[in-house]
Structures are given as structure tokens and as C-alpha cells.
Amino acid sequence: MSTARAKLVIRKQIVRSFKKQQLTLQADAMTFLEDTLEAQNVPPEDLNDTLDNIVSGYVAREGLSLVSRARLEIVLESMQKWTHHLHEKPTRNTLDPHKSQHALSQSTNYPSSQHHYQHSQQRPNPEDLESIDMDSMRDRIHEMEGEQRTGERHQYGDDNLFMEGTQDRASQMEGLADDDADDVDITEMLHVIDAFSMPRWRWASDIKTFTRVESSASTNPQESDAQRNGSTRAATTSSTNHVLGHAEEKTAMFRARYHVLLQRIMRNECFAPPVFTGGMEQDRYLKLTPLKALKGRCGERFLMFGMLIQMGDGKYCLEDADDRVELVMDHSQNSAGLFTENCFVLVEGQYTDDNVIIVETIGLPPPELRDETKKVFGNIDFLGAPREMRSEEQLRVIAQEYEDISFVILSDIWLDQPKTFATLRTIFEGYSNSTLPLAFIMCGSFKSQPFLYNGLESGQYRDGFNTLAELIAEFPTMATFSYFIFVPGPNDPWGASILPRPKIPDFYTAKIRSLVKRSIFSSNPCRIKYCDQEIVIFREDILNRLLRNCIVPPCGDVVIQKQLVRTIIDGAHLCPLPLTTRQVSWAHDHALRIYPIPDALILADKFEAYNFKYQNCHCMNPGSFPTSDYSWMVYYPASRRSDICQIPKPVR
Fold this sequence. Notes:
By secondary structure, this protein is α/β, with parallel strands linked by helices. It is built from 18 helices and 23 strands. The strands form 5 sheets. It has a 7-stranded mixed sheet, with helices on one face. Helix 7 packs across helix 8 (159-182).
């Protein structure tokens, strides 16, 4: 391969790697990176991995969409210092995920050099990058390393003793790591996140990343400090989080849904435009056309993305951020999914002289695996869980080591039915004589009939929880060590049938909170963070609502449960229904967002029980406890599987 062609291949690969992460290289940064790769003699087969490491390092450290040479130099200097070659990944220490092995060996046993190490590890202010003298920094690093080697020889005498001391320290570190794994309290690995405590993120198109939207009202500082320090197991609802929002929140809600899906689509490999135009590459990707670009292009076929809406005259339209166009779906072919008003879809069709689209195909936006999302936005905390000092790899190992950990999931626990308590007693007796579950997830409704706001109904509702508290207290070990997580349902007070629903008021649950040590009353929906896994819990009879509001008939060759799960996950929203059918709080719509895709999704529905995987997400429905002959579901996070359980019937 000639030199000119080799440089062209390198440049093309550089642009493609940075383009995947929505990054733009300045001309001087491009030249600097080409020269660096050429100087390092990176083999052609390692070029792709090398560039991926550089891009990942830049996103983790800087995150700015416009890549300048000064910022790129900082990233490469850091990577070159801690790795032997540019294409190798730095190793991490099992004790502290934020330190590399080499850095730990420098800072653990040499008090005299701690000041130099900490000083060299300080990250420069991005605003002052242009003023950094990289040559002076490099000379200072070499000088400190020389002083460090001199101190090591003085302390250990010769190289052999130094190597023995290093091996002893490595063995001590391994022992400490084993002790740390043995001392893990698995009950401290579970956190429940209330819907009203989740951070709100908005997509910023100018910098191509998410920015946090701060609440205009002041929050309780004591609650905020407690959540940041992880001193509470459940994130509590702040007094300033109101269900109702401002008038502008309604349009902002749909706009946020649109931009979250659009940025995900444009990052998909099928929709990513080629780096260099020309040749056959122009036909190798799908091109989205904005609706405002349809004017004057009659007779052409287009692929568009937007939200399905219904006008006053009953006609359906597709609407994006700039315009809307009428749809004619008489002969459309739809892919798997349940398409309702206010859901976001991809539409392919022909634009006619009447300014309408003759729809040929309608489908859901392509999903994105959780790992792919974390690669791009790994520095963004979408969940709002307490900070964890362990790395994701360490948490994953811990979850896999505790194979017997399980979550018992029940839905529709009707506390006004005597048979419910008899069945629960049998279940509690069985688990108390075997391995205790880490958590009992009890979803509502906790009443067989809708709650009426009068004194009689209120007293009976409270008595049901008091009876449940006394039942759980009969099993002291279970009441002390197992979590009991309560999620309200459609018949529970209160929330005016608006999603997300607040937790059940404390007035009804005082006794169960006093007798059950780890009882948590959360919102609907809510989320569980267990080790490295995110579990979403949503109690809603969503399937029947979607079927009643479908615009086009469901695809007949796919199981209806899978169409439901695909609609929710691909659409990145738990409730893709029109607001006239299911009301959603405008200010807290982000709590219903399924982005990134969770590790497990619990859709507690009255429909029959099911469990399967979709896009590496374990989806399950325990079914209605009383109407399914008192069956429930058990989820095992170590193996990421679930089983449908039922009390054996006596043999006659």
C-alpha cells in the first residue's frame, strides 16, 4: 500500500471513529492525531481498537463535541503515561477503580512521594488547556519518576530486594481484595429510587450530549446530602416535587421524547451517513428527511421520523420538531409493535401533490443496547442512585457470586380478601424455612375495588396494612433482613390517576414501617439499583389500553406480549398512550423514560404471566396474584432469569 493511500485510510478511519460518538475534529487536531499514530507505528489490524480507546478516553475526560488539538494532547499524554503502547488499555486495581495498578504502587508504600503523586494526578481545568506547557509537564514527570526509582533503591538496597518487596505488596493487595469481597454486605447493594427523585436530563443538540435540568424550587439540603452519601436505602420524595408542572412543560415533554429517540436513531449504524461521499456508499445507509424539506418534492419517496397525532377532523398526521404532514395509511404495512396516538414512529412513503404521505411502511425506531448507551453516556447518571465506590466490573462480580439472591414479585395483593393473607402466610412459611429472598416486591392494587375517599374506606384500607404488618412480624428473620418494597396500583390512594403515582401516604402504613425494618413505600413506577443492575417496576394494565387505542391493527405473526415489550423498549417510554387516555405529569415524564434500556423490566399487568428477553433486558409480568390462582414470580439477578411459582395443590 502506498504512503498516500495509507494516510487516506488512516484519515478515513479517524473521521469514522470520532463521528460515531458525535465528535468533530478540528484540522490541527486531525493532523496531530495522524502524526501521532504514524510515530507510534500502530499495526493496521490494531488501528480500529486504538482509535476506539482514544475516543473513549476523550469522551470520559473532556466530553466536548468539538475536539481541539490542546484537549486531544492532554488525553494522549495521560494514555501514553500509563500504557506501554497507545493501543493497550490501562489496567485497573481491584481495590480502587479510580486508580491504576502503577499509580497504586507509587502511592501505597511511599509516604515521601505522596505529595508528588497527588500533584501529578490533578486534572487541568479545561478552560486553561491552551496555557499548559506540555514539554515542561513531561520533563517534570520524568524527574519525579527518577526520584521515585532512587527512593526505591535506597529503601530496598538492590533490584532483587525491590522485586521481592513488590511481589509481597502485590500479594497483600490480592489478600485485601479477597477480604473486601468476603466482607460485602449484599443488603447494602440494593437501592430503591423514587420516580420523583430521579434527575431530569435534556438533550442539548448544540453540544450533542445531555444536560441536567435543575428544579426551579429549592430542595431540602438534608435530604440531598443523605442521598449523595448513600445513607438511605430509598431515595425520598422532596417536598418541592409537585405532580403538576407549568404550561410550557407539556410541549417540552414531547420535545424531550423526540430528541432522545432522534439522537439514538442517528447513532445507529443503519442511519449513520458515510464518512466520504461518492461511489456506492451513499446507498448503504437510511436517510431521514425532515418534514419541512418535503415541500416541492412531489412524487418522491421519503423516510421520516416523528410523532403520530390525530387532528380535529379525525385525520392522522406525522409531526416532528418543525412541521407536520397528513398520513394516508389505508395500505400500509406495519412491523411488530402497537402504534397509538402520541407514539414516535418511522414512516416510509410517497409524497403526493395533495401534500399528503401515502404510507407504505410504518415501524418503531431501532433500539440501542444498554452497553452501547453506556459507552457514549457513561458519565451521565440517568438513575440518580447513591454513588458507589466500586467499579461496574466489581459490582458485576459480586452479583454473580451471590447466586442464591432472589426477588419475589407479586402483583395485586388484595388486603381486603381473607384468602390473600392465608396464601401469603403459606408463602412466608416456605421462604422462612429455606433461603430468604433479598426483597419482596409487592405491587398494588392493595384493594380489590377502587378507593373511595371517605372515612369508612380509609379505616378499612389502613386495617389491611396493619394486618399485613402483623403477619410479616410473625417471621422475625424475614421482617429484619428482607426488604419489602410496596408499589401502588390503580385502586390505591392517591395521585388522581396521573403517572407517575406517588407512594402510599404514611398515614396508612405507619404500623408496617414500625414492625418491618426494611419496608420501603415507593412510587409507581420506581427503579431498583442492585449491584450493577437496573430494575424497572411499573404497575399498570398497559396491554389492554394499548390494544384499545391502536391506530393500525397489530402484526399478526408476533406474540402480543412481545409486541408490547418491543413498543415500550423501542419507544423508550413506559406509557406511549395519548394524554386523553392516560394522563402523565408533564414535569415528571422523564421518570417514565426507558433510556438506557434496563437490565430487567417488571410490567405488572393483569394479563397472564410471561418472561423472556429482549435486547438483553429480562422482561417479566407476574400476573395478577388473586386471578392467576395465586401465582407469583421469582427473579434471580445472578443468572438474570425468572421462574413462575405457585403453591402446590393438595393431592386428593
